Amino acid sequence: VRERYRYRVDSFVRYKAIRTTWEDIQRGLALPEGKHERARAMALEWRQSGKSDRQIVDTALAYFRQQPFYYTLTPPVLTGDKV
Fold this sequence. Notes:
Helices cover 41% and strands 0% of the residues. By secondary structure, it is mainly α. The radius of gyration is 19 Å and the shape is extended. It starts with 21 loop residues before the first helix and ends in a 17-residue tail after the last helix. The chain is built from three helices and no strands.
């Protein structure tokens, strides 16, 4: 951040979101076919281990907490499997 920026926002306290369908959820969670093989393999391993959905989420969150992920403003060029 190099400078201050002032803006106005409005709150919609009575906002009602549209209902999300199961198809919308599935589409949002799907990886494109033929890509992201490492992520697919990891998810499949978690699923085949007999874990519940909640346990899989907990496992994924633990993975992200324990790995040395970091944020950078100068990322390298990504090639291959980006997920």
